[in-house]
Write a structure and sequence with these properties.
The complex is a heterodimer of chains A (113) and B (115). Chain A has 113 residues and is mainly beta. Chain A is built from no helices and eleven strands. In chain B, the strands form two sheets. In chain B, strands 2, 4, 5, 6, 9, 10 and 11 form a seven-stranded mixed β-sheet that branches. In chain B, strands 1-3-8-7 form a four-stranded antiparallel β-sheet, with no helix packed on it.
């Protein structure tokens, strides 16, 4: 099936460091969502982006909708141990009135205390 | 407001059997989507329902089917189970197509193991 290219696949960082991850595609998307998933649980919505160029923050998290509408970025500042988990991006295809999303392959984040 | 609920949380079935999974969306949400999550394929879109109608379908065989009831609750069914159907099945609810918000909220998932 279709998937977005998400990078990096995994990363180890020290507590207090900033983290960046991104999703890219050859397709244009109308909406970008960023999720975090803990083991054995469903993904939890972190940030939603609706317009090209939009920059949105949620606490220590900041995400941007790329100008070309083909990419998105998520930054986590001053990471803490509870940031551990898998982060997914999801792009909504430009189909009218649909919630069909394509998901990235995920970035596994591990924070070293 | 209660979140998305899915039942059962865990299920073990044998090959050839069929299974039905249930999803209750957030109160007021009328759109329900289903995804399959496996380590190898990631999150794959199965189908989307709104007002008891399937609006979109992913690239899965006809053994995978679903429906939505008038109260927006949804079920998905997998017939003639195969080993490769072992996965976490996630349900996501959303308001209604056409509104300004396209946020999807996921339930905890149903872990299906086929032996």
């Amino acid at each position: 099936g279709q998937q977005l290219n998400q990078s990096p696949q995994s990363m180890f960082i020290q507590e207090g460091e900033d983290v960046s991850m991104n999703c890219t595609s050859s397709s244009i998307f109308n909406t970008w969502l960023w999720y975090k998933q803990d083991p054995g649980e469903g993904p939890v919505l972190l940030i939603a982006l609706y317009k090209a160029g939009e920059l949105t923050s949620n606490g220590r998290l900041t995400a941007q909708f790329g100008i070309t509408r083909k990419d998105s970025f998520l930054n986590i500042s001053a990471s803490i141990p509870s940031d551990v988990g898998i982060y997914f991006c999801a792009g909504q295809l430009p189909l009218s009135g649909t919630y069909k999303y394509i998901f990235g392959t995920g970035t596994r984040l591990k924070v070293l205390a | 407001k209660a979140g998305v609920t899915q039942t059962p949380r865990y299920l073990i079935k044998t090959r050839g059997q069929q299974v039905t999974l249930s999803c209750s969306p957030i109160s007021g949400h009328r759109s329900v989507s289903w995804y399959q999550q496996t380590p190898g394929q990631g999150l794959q879109f199965l189908f989307e329902y709104f007002s008891e109608t399937q609006r979109n379908k992913g690239n899965f065989p006809g053994r995978f089917s679903g429906r939505q009831f008038s109260n927006s609750r949804s079920e998905m069914n997998v017939s003639t189970l195969e080993l490769g159907d072992s996965a976490l099945y996630l349900c996501a609810s959303s308001l209604s197509p056409g509104v300004s918000s396209y946020e999807q909220y996921f339930g905890p998932g149903t872990r299906l193991t086929v032996t």
